[in-house]
UniProtKB/TrEMBL annotation:
Pfam families: Peptidase_S10 (PF00450). The keyword Signal applies. One of its GO terms (molecular function) is serine-type carboxypeptidase activity. One of its GO terms (biological process) is secondary metabolic process. SUPFAM superfamilies: alpha/beta-Hydrolases. Residues 1-25 form the signal peptide. InterPro entries: AB_hydrolase_fold, Peptidase_S10. Keywords: Signal. It comes from Solanum pinnatisectum (tansyleaf nightshade). This is Uncharacterized protein.
Length: 411
């Protein structure tokens, strides 16, 4: 169970923040966190906002103000993928201002450190546990626990309306919606809902929407087929198997006609060869989805997970109960995916002049950079800046794929 330790630690670190004032839309300010030395050098607020019929869905959020100019810097709503992975994933492991010190676990309380590359250096971010059943978000009735991507998108909009009522000082800030992975299906929907509501001008408050951003986003049915050329390009399969797959499967590798025995055999060989690969990042060790990089943090001693089931063993920390079991990525989410293609949302939003940033990690085998390039190219937008390297501190940190734009004005 040691590979669950990091997840369970996050649970206890934030549990005391989550349960307090859980029905208050205004949230609670957090100045100290266990494991972090001294007062937090940034503004953190946590709380709940009720949405849906009779507010029977309670959405939990973490809000972090920009560390630069919060009065004018952009404000972003961040939705972690999964679906069903807590916003804590984005906050701790990806773009937030704090993370864990990557040292072997020795039985003591782990240390939290600042992330020098946090996006909150230049932007305020609302990390939202969406859909209901994700992270600390919960339903007050069994019926309200049933959700879909379309309903979750509407819940996100309702959340924003209520959140802005209590945070009107951010109404004029440029607003963006962001997310990654499976959020590629809901972020464009949320963005379009905001755009439509802004157009009809019948809903207050007005949200100063400027655009959206997505990382390795799930976008359309058939993306799985790009995993074969991705694996070949990364040197994970042989020339012979790749040529056989192309010949026998004709580009359809995962929705195979049962009568196509040769294709089935090739795909089975492919799956067997790559069963030890970590799909979200092919260079990382393969481990359970809820616990990244355990080899950096935990040794062979008694696991932190065991200690966290004995909260009194940790000085000053007593975990309190929650509504249901907390998981970083919900294993029994009652959620229906109704959007199977978000490209029409991208087309509509870009035609209205909203900006978008789509970025890809080039070692993700689940949503490959090839599939992302394919759907962007399918939009047939004009290329205004050719493929080029992107540098940080005079080192190549990535590549910019053909900046494209429509002829429509910025909203």
């Amino acid at each position: 169970m040691k590979n669950m330790a990091k997840t369970e630690l996050c649970y206890c670190l934030f549990l005391l923040l989550a349960v307090a004032e859980h029905a208050a839309a205004t949230g609670s300010t957090v100045k100290f966190l266990p494991g972090f030395q001294g007062q937090l050098p940034f503004e953190l607020e946590t709380g709940y906002v009720g949405v849906g019929d009779s507010e029977d869905v309670q959405l939990f959020y973490y809000f972090i103000e920009s560390e630069s100019e919060p009065d004018s810097d952009p404000l972003m709503l961040w939705i972690t993928g999964g679906p069903g992975c807590s916003a804590l994933s984005g906050l701790i492991y990806e773009i937030g201002p704090i993370t864990f010190e990557a040292v072997e676990y020795n039985g003591s309380f782990p240390t939290m450190i600042l992330n020098p590359y946090s996006w909150t250096k230049v932007s305020s971010i609302i990390f939202l546990d969406l859909p209901v059943g994700t992270g600390f978000s919960y339903a007050t009735t069994p019926a309200a626990l049933q959700s879909s991507d379309l309903q979750a998108s509407e819940h996100a909009y309702q959340f924003l309306l209520k959140w802005f009522v209590d945070h009107q000082e951010f109404l004029e800030n440029p607003f963006y919606v962001g997310g990654d992975s499976c959020s590629g299906m809901v972020v464009p929907v949320i963005t379009q809902i905001i755009a439509i509501k802004n157009e009809i001008m019948e809903v207050e408050p007005f949200i100063n929407l400027k655009g959206y951003l997505l990382g390795n986003p799930t976008t359309f049915e058939g993306e799985d087929n790009y995993r074969i050329p991705f694996a070949y390009g990364m040197g994970l399969i042989s020339d012979e198997l790749y040529e056989s797959l192309k010949s026998n499967c004709k580009g359809e590798y995962f929705n195979i006609n049962p009568s196509n025995v040769l294709c089935l055999q090739d795909v089975q060989t492919f799956n067997e060869l790559l069963k030890g690969i970590n799909n979200p990042h092919i260079l990382e060790p393969k481990c359970k989805r809820f616990s990244p990089r355990p080899h950096q943090l935990f040794g062979e001693r008694r696991s932190l997970d065991e200690k966290l089931h004995e909260p009194n063993n940790l000085p000053g920390l007593k975990c309190r109960g929650t509504i249901g079991k907390w998981e970083r990525c919900a294993s029994n989410l009652q959620y229906q995916m109704m959007v199977t293609n978000s490209i029409p949302y991208h087309e509509n939003l870009s035609s209205k002049g909203y900006r978008s940033l789509i970025y890809s990690g080039d070692h993700d085998k689940l949503v490959t950079f090839q599939s992302t390039q394919a759907w962007i190219k399918s939009l047939n937008y004009s290329v205004v800046d050719d493929w080029r390297s992107w540098t940080v501190d005079n080192e190549v940190a990535g590549l910019v794929f053909d900046e494209r734009r429509t002829l429509w004005p910025t909203p």
